[in-house]
Write a structure and sequence with these properties.
The protein is an alpha+beta fold. It is built from 20 helices and 45 strands. It has a seven-stranded mixed beta sheet, sandwiched between helices. A seven-stranded mixed beta sheet has the order 34-33-35-36-45-44-42, with helices on both faces.
């Protein structure tokens, strides 16, 4: 991987004078400093470019972009739905400007890496997808709709997403902003897609193809300044089934081999894409592999506004058949107005005719593209005609300047200096200014390395700017650095009180039930909001073969501006050493000076046992210096908190204060309540906390939560003297809920199952996907069944590795796991065995206990079972057959074996009363018969 300031491109002879504008968007510049910035990371860093995007390989890939104006956009429903092989083939193999729009962030799925769920999981999966996108080579966009779990129909999907037009408007917006030539729906829009979200994403994309060109559709976007845009061609996928190697002629229009090896990437397109897909570990894709050899993607053309290019079999050779992707082809939208801009077409033809491997040509192209943009702005063309052309030429200018930077081996970093000062070794993460808060003083150090062997750099200016315009500092000068030398610029700043916080721009108040986000309009559809600070450096480069010091005289002239210009830039990052001593750099983030949390954030109170409860306020200072305030809780009317207020202070950054409050509720009745914490410090009231979402292979971002304890008051009885052992699977919060309502629950580490004395427990519960994730359970399953045979109760929750579960024969009698599920959480439930003790002890279960469930009824039900098993419940999705395999109970020896696919892992943390009562009864099944 290229580290800024090192040379990775072979020595080249230059015979021209060249000026490059290094554009770094950052803020607050002072005079250039002679002290060096912190040393760049010496190991691969997530935020550094991939090796294939640096040096000779990077230049070859960049030159492919300069040879086409083609633009492609793919729409999918969730992270990991994308056809990474096709995206990589187009973006990297052909240089096509490519965008992936993923409607949801996958927040409704399960997590195979831990117990992060809901909106925090959405942040994690956003980071995972952005990591994969680096390999695909694509831009990323999202819509406002949330993944609410599995859906079997597009009708339910549209209903949950606030109507058909909510996601459609977002797709149309992105089309009008990105202006693709080719639009691809990853799915077919039919039942063949399975998931209702998949079907909906294709149906919406097909409608958006024409809607984006209609100014009467979503006219509010036109008032914002967006222009209607008509893509040229529309394709749909999943026309032959995923993974198909052959396809009937009539089913597809184009067949693309994503297994073709690209010599620049060093592997096939699909193999390179899979290297990115491996980052989506929360979906179990960390070990995915693709063998060498042909691998085909089939797509069908379903709408088009260009002439037919199909052969006699109805096939095409390329997605862009019939689309002019040449640089002169950009004038097609102003063909009738070329007399008003007579210079436009000839200049574009001249640019497109140059040899892009020649540095002189790249330099000339950069200058002429820049000049064309300026001339277009001043032309008399109408805005609807001028805007897309001006935008496309600006993009080509940026691409050309990036190619020049690669040719010239320019390296640039912008970092926050360590607290010990510029030049000091990177500190630990705890000591590093990650993140910073309003009031914090810091030094930003920019370092420009002239990696050229023959060109001198003349620095014109350095500019530090913020994405929210809270700072802009420019330092103009005339400094010359020789080949191999570095230029440093220091910017001393203080984060102002009004600096916007770096946070997700999307939010919903009730993640368990809200399925459409409120968004900050400035950033809507982006993956993440932009980095707060960006550093720009303007410079010129000049030289020729055999040029040596001293610098040419004309470079010493203060106002020499006759040379062409280019651009380069970098976000400001913060360096630190992780727990393994590896140096890393992450983008600067701005967070509140105090992070305040109320733990636990979810609490279930039993009506019978809930005389008092505890809440712990946790305050973390992120400000260098002293900060203090008054901490208090807002409780429901009639409730009391002790103490009522508390004075807190922290004298240094990183200090954490914990304060326990005793909550005394009043008049407990089943329902919901909230307790809110606030720390008042001067004129500021801190009412939320934030945590960093990251992983070693990912970037990082902050997830915010209000300092609130959501209290679910449940009328539930728990058995006395029942000791429960809980073996965690992929991760869930069920044990916490059981403990909160007064049950005696002990967590048993899976690795200790071999030596654990199970006879001390009356019941053992296996967490969600326990057999999928805990190999010790597989090896010790006989011990669990022996526990049941001796009189214990074993409750097994859903696993999704159907083949492994069935081949493992983990159940005491024959039973086959399936992928059957009931996705509608309101689906009616029938009690099949109303006299069974499990519905009567210790709680009476009735039909109303199935009201208020969230996201889904259940998943991975059994579809076949031995007669020893008794099905207890039945439910089904609309227009489907009954599913009776969601809750099976069998007597085995002296004990009770239970399998359940019902989604208790979602219901209990959400405080659903009926689900809590039923779960308690199931755990108590071993004592239910005698007690009843």
């Amino acid at each position: 991987m290229q580290i800024a300031g090192t040379e990775v491109w072979p020595k080249t002879s230059f015979g021209i004078l060249l000026v490059v504008l290094l554009l770094f968007t950052a803020s607050f510049a002072q005079a250039p400093a002679t002290s060096p910035a912190a040393a760049p990371a010496s190991s691969p860093d997530f935020y550094d470019p991939l090796p294939q995007d640096t040096g000779e390989a990077g230049l070859k890939l960049q030159l492919r972009k300069l040879q086409t104006t083609g633009r492609l956009m793919m729409v999918v429903a969730h992270p990991d739905d994308e056809d990474g092989g096709l995206l990589t083939r187009e973006a990297r193999g052909k240089g096509v400007q490519t965008l992936l729009m993923t409607l949801t962030r996958g927040e409704g799925g399960q997590n195979e890496t831990g117990n992060t769920f809901s909106d925090e999981l959405g942040v994690l999966r956003t980071l995972e997808l952005l990591a994969a996108d680096k390999y695909y080579g694509v831009e990323q966009r999202f819509s406002r709709v949330a993944d609410f779990g599995y859906s079997k129909s597009p009708e339910e999907t549209f209903q949950k997403w606030g109507g058909h037009d909510v996601p459609l408007a977002d797709i149309v917006r992105v089309i009008r902003e990105f202006r693709p030539d080719v639009l691809i729906a990853r799915f077919s829009g039919t039942s063949r897609d399975g998931h209702g979200h998949h079907q909906a994403s294709s149906m919406l994309t097909q409608e958006a193809f024409r809607a984006a060109a209609d100014p009467n559709r979503f006219p509010e976007q036109i008032k914002e300044g967006l222009q209607p845009w008509q893509p040229k061609k529309l394709y749909i996928g999943n026309v032959c089934g995923f993974g198909a190697t052959t396809c009937p002629d009539e089913n597809y229009t184009i067949q693309l081999n994503t297994g073709e090896v690209d010599p620049v990437l060093g592997m096939s397109y699909v193999q390179f894409a899979v290297e990115g897909l491996k980052h989506q570990q929360s979906q179990g894709l960390g070990d995915i592999k693709v063998p060498s050899g042909p691998r085909y993607a089939f797509y069908k053309l379903v709408d088009s506004v260009v002439p037919n290019t199909k052969d006699e079999k109805g096939h095409e050779m390329d997605l862009f058949d019939g689309v002019d992707t040449s640089l002169p082809g950009l004038t097609r939208g102003v063909a009738d107005e070329l007399n008003d801009v007579p210079w436009l077409l000839p200049t574009l033809k001249k640019i497109s005719g140059r040899d892009l491997s020649d540095v002189n040509s790249l330099s000339d192209n950069a200058v002429e593209l820049r000049d064309m943009v300026e001339r277009l702005k001043e032309s008399d063309l109408d805005t609807p005609l001028k805007s897309p052309l001006e935008w496309a030429l600006s993009e080509k200018q940026d691409q050309t300047e990036h190619a020049l930077n690669l040719v010239l081996h320019l390296g640039f970093t912008a970092e926050v200096a360590p607290p010990q000062g510029a030049g000091a070794a990177p500190p630990s993460r705890a000591q590093a200014l990650t993140p910073v808060s309003p009031g914090q003083k810091l030094m930003v150090v920019g370092k420009l390395h002239n990696g050229s062997k023959r060109y001198w750099l003349t620095i014109r200016s350095a500019t530090l700017i913020s994405s929210e315009s809270w700072v802009r500092r420019v330092h103009s000068e005339h400094v010359t650095i020789a080949p191999g030398e570095d230029y440093y610029a220091n910017f001393a700043i203080q984060v102002p009180a009004n600096a916007p916080i770096t946070r997700p721009y999307w939010n919903r108040n009730d993640p368990a039930r809200d399925t459409v986000y409120e968004v900050d309009a400035k950033y809507q559809t982006l993956g993440l909001p932009p980095s707060p600070l960006h550093l720009n450096v303007e410079y010129e480069i000049a030289g020729h073969k055999g040029l040596h010091s001293p610098a040419p005289e004309f470079l010493k002239k203060k106002h020499a501006r006759e040379l062409p210009e280019g651009a380069i830039g970098a976000d400001v990052r913060v360096g630190f050493r992780d727990d393994h001593g590896v140096e890393r750099r992450i983008p600067l983030a701005i967070t509140p000076a105090v992070s305040l949390a109320l733990e636990p954030s979810e609490r279930v109170l039993s009506v019978a046992e809930g005389k008092t409860s505890m809440a712990q306020a946790q305050a973390y200072s992120n400000l260098t210096g002293t900060i203090g305030g008054t901490l208090h809780l807002a409780v429901p009317n009639g409730w009391r908190s002790e103490p009522s207020t508390l004075r807190l202070s922290a004298s240094k950054r990183g200090e954490k204060r914990q304060s326990d409050f005793t909550i005394t509720p009043a008049n407990l009745q089943e329902g919901q309540a909230e307790i809110r914490a606030a720390l008042d410090s001067g004129r500021i009231s801190y009412t939320e906390g934030y945590t960093r979402v990251t992983r070693e292979d990912l970037g990082s971002f902050y997830y915010f939560q209000p300092a609130v304890q959501h209290v679910s008051i449940v009328d539930v009885k728990v058995p006395k003297d029942l000791k429960v052992g809980y073996i965690m699977g992929a991760g869930d919060d069920i044990p916490t809920v059981l403990q909160q309502i007064g049950m005696n629950v002990t967590l048993i580490p899976a690795e200790k199952i071999t030596t654990e004395n199970l006879t001390q427990y009356g019941s053992i519960v296996l967490g969600v996907r326990a057999y999928d994730t805990q190999k010790e359970l597989v090896a010790n399953n006989k011990k669990l069944l022996d526990f049941v045979s001796a009189g214990g109760t074993l409750m097994v929750q859903n696993n999704n590795s159907v083949g492994d579960f069935n081949s493992g024969h983990f159940t005491p009698y024959d039973a086959e796991l399936s992928r059957a599920r009931v996705s509608v959480e309101e689906a009616p439930v029938q009690i099949l065995a109303p006299d069974d003790p499990v519905f009567h002890y210790p709680n009476e279960i009735s039909q109303k206990d199935f009201d208020g469930w969230v996201q889904e009824r259940g998943l991975y039900f059994m579809d076949k079972w031995d007669d020893h098993f008794k099905p207890l419940l039945s439910c089904h999705d609309p227009n489907e057959a009954d599913q009776n395999g969601g809750l099976l109970v069998a007597k085995y020896g002296k004990g009770t074996y239970i399998y359940t696919g019902y989604a208790f892992f979602r219901q209990l943390p959400a405080g659903v009363p009926g689900a809590i009562r039923l779960f308690v009864n199931l755990v108590s099944a071993g004592t239910a018969a005698s007690s009843h």
